[in-house]
Amino acid sequence: MDKILLKPRREESILRFHPWVFSGAIAQIQGHPSEGDLVSVVSADGKLLACGHYQIGSIAVRILSFDEDPTLPDFWVRMLSRALRLRESLGLGENGTNCYRLVHGEGDGLPGLIVDFYDGVCVLQAHSVGMFRAKNAISDALREVYGPSLKAVYDKSSGTAPFKAGLDLVDGYLWKAPGFEEDEAVVLENGNKFLVNWNEGQKTGFFLDQRENRARVGALAKGRNVLNLFCYTGGFSIYALAGCAVHVDSVDSSARAMAMVDRNVALNGFGSDDHTSYCADAIDFLKNVPEGKYNLMIVDPPAFAKHRGALKNALRAYQRLNAAAISKVAPGGFVFTFSCSQVVDKEAFSLAVFSAAAESGRSVRILDRLNQPGDHSVNIYHPEGEYLKGLLLYVE
Ligand code: SAH
Questions:
Q1: Given this structure, which CATH class describes domain 207-395?
Q2: What distance in angstroms lies between residue 148's CA and the mean position of ligand 1's atoms?
Q3: What digits encode the pLDDT tens for the residues 25-39?
Q4: What is the mean pLDDT of residues 198-214?
Q5: Domain segments of the chain as ranges
Q6: Which of 187, 316, 353, 388 has the CA that lies 20 to 30 A from 339?
Q7: How far apart are CA 93 and CA 188, in angstroms?
Q8: What is the C-alpha to C-alpha distance for residues 301 and 337, in angstroms, rounded to an integer?
Q9: Which of 362, 366, 251 is nearest to 299 (CA)?
Q10: Could you tell me if 58 and 30 are in contact, meaning their C-beta atoms sit under 8 angstroms apart?
Q11: Is the CATH number 3.90.1300.10 carried by domain 75-186?
């Protein structure tokens, strides 16, 4: 294994279990590692600190192990079993939920790897060269961990693995059980049915991170007129319907997503009296909403800031969008508002929503602060893993 030798005193973050080595901390690279190779990380005074995947760029090493040997044959099985144990202890995989995130990168000690589980189908996304190169070993380990309940392992890394690596980036099955032919499945989330298409859908096919917040919407939807903006395949809409909303309107600019919403509405036994689909720009749609028409709104836009440079404009966009929602919601209404931009932290988001409330001039209370669920766990030494935040507002 080639060696990454750190500059003096640059081992401190690794001793605190931060899972990245930045290129600026490196004094010397001993050997000629290729991107994705396992390398060892050594302090200036020669102590072995960790092992990880090497990559050219500002994050030079993504650490897989501080004490174990990631070259051992059972490494992946051990790490994936550990991830599964946590999900099982959260009650995922039973009680009406058969889809969840199995691996959340750094949160599970596996930087650069996402694995989502859809009733026996694992959809893998590599965000680093090392994880991309390890995908077949990971697929084999998933088979061992899940045993005969595993139906397939699908690699969806073409949009996430770094292209400069010149890797063969074609999505497809790494393994499937004999007879398995589907690209689509009906999964259960808290007893609600959802179609997931990992091949054509966004990300791995479904936004599993909103499970608990959807349940919250369901619990408050009774008797309400609901507007679900940026609805994707209608996650929040189905929970609202199941929670006895009077009517739900769902809006997304993706025609493919809206077609899935209609199928999900029917799949859960609802019809056109209960629900209406709008394939439209959510911001334009909101402009034309009559004041007071809705008394529960969900605002869950895509990440407005994908990097720090976009932060200022993103905060302005969150403010504008939330000001429009808060102004339009009926008195006594709830607004569930979210940001999934990692670079927008909780405080900055709260401040944008505060400014939006002030702009609307209405009385607004924060009833709750919303988060990503436990299967999207955050390594306490890697706060960068926290990305989803939301507020439940009560507007008078
Ligand atoms: N709330 C969803 C996830 C939202 S992801 C869920 O629970 O599953 C963000 C969604 O916003 C995507 O479906 C994307 O198609 C949609 N989108 C992006 N820009 C949009 C716009 N300007 N108007 C409407 N929808 C938009």
A1: alpha beta
A2: 35
A3: 999 999 999 999 999
A4: 97
A5: 2-65, 75-186, 207-395
A6: 187
A7: 9
A8: 9
A9: 251
A10: no
A11: no
- Residue 72 main-chain phi, psi, to 5 deg: -65, 145
The matching CATH number, chosen from 3.30.70.120, 3.40.50.1820, 2.30.130.10, 3.30.465.10, for 2-65 is: 2.30.130.10
Encode pLDDT of 372-383 as tens digits.
Answer: 999 999 999 999
Best mutation site among 189, 230, 297, 304 for ligand 1 pocket (most ligand atoms within 8 Å of CB)? 230
Question: Rounded CA gap, 129 and 263, in Å?
Answer: 37
CA dihedral 156, 162, 168, 170 (to 10 degrees): 20
* Dihedral (Cα; 274, 278, 279, 281), 10-degree rounding: -140
Whole-structure pTM value:
0.96
Residue 29 token pair: 């690279």
Which residues, judged by CB distance below 6 Å to any ligand atom, belong to the binding site of ligand 1?
202, 207, 210, 230-233, 235-236, 251-254, 257, 281-283, 300-302
Q: How many CB atoms lie within 10 A of CB 37?
A: 17
